Amino acid sequence: MIRLEHLNLVVRDISETLAFYQAAFPHWKVRGGEAATWYGVARNWVHFGDDYNYLTFNDQGQGENRDLTSNTLGLSHFAFVTSDIESLIERLKLAGFPPDKIGAENKYRKNVYYIDPNGYEIEFVEYLTDIPSQRNQYDNQQQTNTFRGNEREYRNPSWYF
């Protein structure tokens, strides 16, 4: 068996980053961290997660994250499964983080995308079935996000409140 243990992300500010991820993952905690030096640059790091999975945040990030509307090489997004997407959306909304976009209408899943304080795109998905062939079915989607230049027009799926 192979599974993803952690993602290691360079961020601008650990406190701002934790505000977003603590709202998304209220059951996760800071597992550890310390000050370190990375190629001559002093920086701090923390592990934020549970006993099985975590995110590493390293501060002192410089510059901007990649343009998510381009084909620039780099991380496009990463995703987490949730059992209650509406509660997750509400927690993030109360913490001041609105969704960036809502996924396409699909009878087997609901998904929503956020941009964290560092420009990383995170997808959250709630599956409405345990049957893998249905979870991974894509032909019943209706596209809900349309793009015009740098402006987005949305037609939200019926489940989004």
Automatic annotation (TrEMBL):
<feature type="domain" description="VOC">
    <location>
        <begin position="3"/>
        <end position="127"/>
    </location>
</feature>
<protein>
    <submittedName>
        <fullName>Glyoxalase</fullName>
    </submittedName>
</protein>
<dbReference type="InterPro" id="IPR004360">
    <property type="entry name" value="Glyas_Fos-R_dOase_dom"/>
</dbReference>
<dbReference type="InterPro" id="IPR029068">
    <property type="entry name" value="Glyas_Bleomycin-R_OHBP_Dase"/>
</dbReference>
<dbReference type="InterPro" id="IPR037523">
    <property type="entry name" value="VOC_core"/>
</dbReference>
<dbReference type="Pfam" id="PF00903">
    <property type="entry name" value="Glyoxalase"/>
</dbReference>
